Amino acid sequence: MRGLPRDDEPPLDLSNVKGILNGSEPVSPASMRKFFNAFAPYGLPETAVKPSYGLAEATLFVSTTAPNEPPTVIHVDRDELNKQRFVEVPADSPNAVAQVSAGKVGVDEWAVIVDPDTASELPDGQIGEIWLHGNNLGIGYWGKEEESAQIFRNILKSRISESHAEGAPTTDCGYAPATTAPTSRDTSI
Hints:
Layout: E1 20-22, H1 29-39, E2 49-53, E3 63-64, E4 73-77, H2 78-82, E5 96-100, E6 104-105, E7 109-115, E8 120-121, E9 128-134, H3 145-152, E10 154-155, E11 166-175, E12 181-185
Parallel strand pairs: 1-2
Antiparallel strand pairs: 2-3, 3-6, 4-5, 7-8, 7-9, 9-11, 10-11, 11-12
């Protein structure tokens, strides 16, 4: 693996690393495991690998794994996932697909899973578009008022729980049993 010290180099000590954020696309469990296994012999703590979620409109940060927790891998049923439903199954289930959680949403932020066609909040276990609200979100795009209104000033038509009614759609699809877990980006939304 690129980046590992050669035999003629001084030993590498990663035991003090607190966090390495990993995001931008859904995080692959296999890639995460390969990275950790490569650097664990140099003292990298398992809790240092932080699968995260973010996007430019949210000044890059939306959610991450808690400081002293290792990454969480959730196994879901492939057939149900293809039907836009999140159903956890045992890891050894024949239809199991591993998904990496992107942790919890930041303290001053709010995220909800929404049906983009109806602007209605979806219950836990259903896949929809991730909408965000928080002080880290931009207020619009410079010189593009119409596009800014479409992206940054959407109003939820139906909410399940008390929350902010205004949100910014991300075009990212995900689900939220208790954490954010992006599954894909749908630019057609």
